[in-house]
Every structure is written in structure tokens, then in C-alpha cells.
Amino acid sequence: MDLLEEIERRRTFGIISHPDAGKTTLTEKLLLFGGAIQEAGAVKSNKIKKGATSDFMEIERQRGISVATSVLAFMYKDKKINILDTPGHKDFAEDTFRTLTAVDSVIVVIDVAKGVEEQTEKLVEVCRMRNIPMIVFINKLDREGKDAFDLLDEVEQKLGLKVIPLSFPIGMGYDFKGIYNIWEKKLNLFSGDTKQTVSAGIEFTDLDDPELDKMIGDAAAETLREEIELVREVYPDFDKDAYLNGELQPVFFGSALNNFGVKELLDCFIEIAPTPQPKMSDTRLVDSKENKFTGFVFKIHANMDPKHRDRLAFVKIVSGVFKRNTNYLHVKLGKKMKFSSPNAFFAEKKEIVDESFPGDIVGLHDTGNFKIGDTLTEGEVLEFKGVPSFSPEHFRYVNNADPMKAKQLAKGLDQLMDEGVAQLFTLDLNGRKVIGTVGALQFEVIQYRLEHEYGAKCSYENLNVHKACWVEPEDDQSDEFKDFKRVKQRYLAKDKKEQLVFLADSAFTVQMTQQKYPTVKLHFVSEYK
Ligand code: G4P
User: Same structural domain for residues 107 and 238?
Assistant: First the structure.
């Protein structure tokens, strides 16, 4: 198989949802179809159980699982499918944002009873900004939930999407009879006691066929006819290009737990979902079909065994073929490196591979050379864009609590930040270190991991910061910028990449600062150019 064929058969995507909507269950059912696992329950949920915020065993357990489930690959109808795991817990949202830089499309799971929830809104917004193609799966149809049309309206309004249902439910909850697959013009009937079995749909090109009444009853048949008619009137026709451009989102209904509607989703997905996409770098657009290898690090995972300090850097292959034992350029370090045991992922196992192709993820053992966002190439000097840091939500000073272990603390903090656990800012004025996180949970994770993996102790001190704003002066020699730096001196810091950051204490301050210094732009994201 040549490079083009390998690219053509790959689909790399992420599943996003609010916790509990059914992401893990859906993932597992997809793996079952691919024959990658044999039984339900094999994919462990990596969500942190509610109320477990102080339970460090739980965090460690979760870390262990999240390495195993970071990438779940399987074959289905000769397609190589890579699912990139995204943590649902809001405190790990940053991880999810970064993973979204490595997917070519996403499936959004929504609970039919709860509708659009907070976390879904945030994640979909990121996908929308990047025009990532999305398919929506409305889950738990075996339970009572919202009316299908109301829910479609809610999805459009709250998520800012333009939807097109490609399947439609017949009844719901107790009365759930099945689904009409508009995409394939097939009827799938739900039978409560044939859970987990995969039944082929019955071809139904003409819904006026009286056979339909016999199968689902007169009333349900009539309702279905009316609803499908309405779907055709209200929603646009499916247009694959519009979907691929992120302008139109197909919707499927089903019940992941009962394995209902999942095969229909998967069959449509492999047909319409994008193959590995080109990616923008600082110098040019890199096409997946180019022969020379390029890739970037979107995730770093520390070894679970504290005695082995090596880490696994997850690289998404953008173009060409990645080969074992071959020299590649680590662009940021300007250093050639080769990898003798790159890991590929298959279901919940990982194994050493000789070659990987665009869309694939390889796990590289790393002793501290990689940071999130780093690019590898065959020699070309380019860096991929699009692994930005967002402003954290919580900020604290970090202090050394054991003077004998200053080195360990510095090293531990450095490595945890490379992994993307949190962001570190160093105040210009006095060199004090400030940690910024998305959720409060990370402060405990950092303290625990510093102690257990690096033998260092830290304490925290509160700091009143509303947002970290990355500073972009129009002219860094202007009097206005000099004045800004003088007046705001106490609140200026550098991030890990030595970029200037203004730690604003309130939304009001941000607003006033922008008014007073119009040529000094403030951004809530590190990669603003
Ligand atoms: P998440 O990864 O998005 O957080 O969700 P997960 O798959 O863990 O599902 C959350 C809960 O919803 C689980 O129940 C799961 O069994 C249930 N669920 C998933 N899909 C369906 C569905 O189609 N119908 C119904 N009725 N329930 C569904 P749990 O009791 O929280 O966990 P568990 O003890 O079953 O693992």
C-alpha cells in the first residue's frame, strides 16, 4: 500500500461531551465494531469520579488509564480509525483543547435528557473556531428525554451549529421503537431484549409503504412520516463539502449503552469524515500527501513509575512516513534525534512499530527534550501552529517548602509544565513564580506529584489574578508601550516561552488597560498571531 492509500484509509477523530453523556460507552461500542475488544466494559472510564478531588489514588489511577486510552486505534471496513481520548472533567479542559489540535474531526455526544451542557458548549466553541468537521450523536434514546426537534433547535442555538438530522428517532424512552436512518433510508427497530446485538436495518426507501404500519403500528408510522416530512422541509440537504468545511453538522440519534444507532453512525462516519488534513506551519501549509515526514507533539505523559523519569511524547504525523531508527530534526532544539522504539496504539495496547502514516499517533520515549507544540521534520525548518495556551482560571504563588530541595522543585515544576499540567509565569519584578491552572484540582495534583516523583515540597499563596493576558505591542519602542510597562510593572510576567504576560486582577482592569493603551493588544491566548 502506498502513502496515498494509507492516507485515504485513515480517520483520526476525538469524541467530546459533557461528563456522563456517554463518551466512554460510545468509544467502547465503536471498538467492539472494530473487533478491537471482545466485550463491553473493557475500556475503563478515565473520568475522575465525583467527590474524588482529594483522592490521590484516584488521580493516579486516572493517569494510568489515560495513558492506555490516549489513543484507541482499530480497523473497520478496511479503514484505520484513531480515536484520540479527551478528558471530560472540566479541570482538564486544557488537555482536551490540545488534543483537538491533533484531530481531523470530532463526534459530539449529547444526552437526550440533559441537552446541551456547559462543557459541550466550551469544547464545541473551540471546534467551531477551527472549522473542525463535527457529527452530533444524541445519546440515551432508551430514556425519556427532550423532543427531537426541540433538541435540534437547542443544539443550533446553544452551540451555534447548523444541523441536518441523518437519522430520526421513533418514539423515546419507554416508547422507543427504533430509528429511521435517513442517510441509508433504512429502518432499525429497537428491541429491548436484543441488547448488544447488531441487527441490519430494513431497507425502506418509501415511507408510504404500508409495511411500515405493520412494523411499528399505525400511529408511530404516521408520526414518523410527518416528522421526516418536516425534517425535509426545515433542514437543508446534506452537503459533504459543507460538513467538511465545518458549516453543517449531521446528527444521529441512538443509545450507546444498547448499541443502538452506533453502527449507523460509524458507517456514515467512515464515508464522510475527513482523511488526515493539511496543517498550517509558520512558513507554509503542509499537506499530508507530501513525501517528507513532519509531525508535532500534542501531549506529553509522564511515566507512572517514579523511578523512571522518562516520558511519552505523543506525536501526530502530519505528512510523509515516520520511520523507526531514522534521524529527524527537532526544530526548536535544532537537534537531530532518532527513535528506536516508537509506540503505536492499537485498542488499549501499545506496540513498537517500524512505520506510521499521516493521521497516526506515535508515542516517543523522551527524557526531557520535548515540550507540547514541538515539531519534528526530515530537516525543513518549520513549526506547526495551533497548540496555544489559554489563559488559566486560577492563579497562586508557588513557594518552596523544603529549602534543601530547591533543585528538585525547579526540575519538577519545569517538567510538569512541559507536560501541560499547568502554566508557570515568572514575575518580572521579583522573579516569583506563579502557577496558573484551569481547575483547582491541578494544584493538588502538582503538589502530590512534586512530592512523589521529584521529592520536592511546595506550598501555595493566594494571588488575585482574573486572567493572564499575552501582550502584543504594535511598536515595542513606542512611548505608550514603555509607559504601559512602567505603570503595570508589578503585574508583568514571562510565560515559559519568555512571552510577556500581563496578569490582570479583574475584567475591569483589562478593559481600562485596553482603553488607556490602545496600541498594546491583550490576548487571552498565547498564540495570537
Ligand atoms: P462519559 O464517558 O461521557 O462520562 O459517560 P459514560 O460513557 O461513562 O456514561 C455515563 C453513564 O451513562 C453510565 O452510567 C453509562 O452506562 C450511561 N449510559 C451511556 N449510554 C447510555 C444509553 O444509551 N442509555 C442509558 N440509559 N444510559 C447510558 P453510570 O451508571 O454512571 O456508570 P456505569 O456504572 O454504568 O459505568
Answer: yes
The residue range of the domain holding 310 is 279-377
pLDDT tens for residues 194-225?
Answer: 544 445 667 777 778 888 888 888 888 889 99
Which pTM value belongs to this model? 0.86
Please state the domain count of the chain: 3
Q: Are residues 519 and 401 in the same domain?
A: yes
User: Between 56-68 and 441-454, two packed helices, what is the crossing angle to 10 degrees?
Assistant: 80
Specify the residue with its C-alpha closest to ligand 1, atom 14: 20
The mean per-residue pLDDT over the stretch 56-84 comes to: 77
417 shares a domain with 372: no
Q: Pocket residues for ligand 1 (CB within 6 Å)?
A: 17, 19-25, 45, 47, 88, 139-140, 142-143, 255-258
Grid cell locating 119: 462543557
Q: Which of 18, 25, 144, 258 to mutate to test the pocket of ligand 1 (most atoms within 8 A of CB)?
A: 25
Crossing angle of helices 148-159 and 218-234, rounded to 10°? 30
Ligand 1 center to residue 176 CA distance, Å? 18
Domain final residue pick, 377, 409, 443: 377
Q: Are residues 419 and 309 in the same domain?
A: no
pLDDT value at position 467?
A: 93
Q: Is 344 exposed, middle or buried (0-12, 13-18, 19+ CB in 10 A)?
A: buried
Nearest atom in ligand 1 to the alpha carbon of residue 143 is: 26
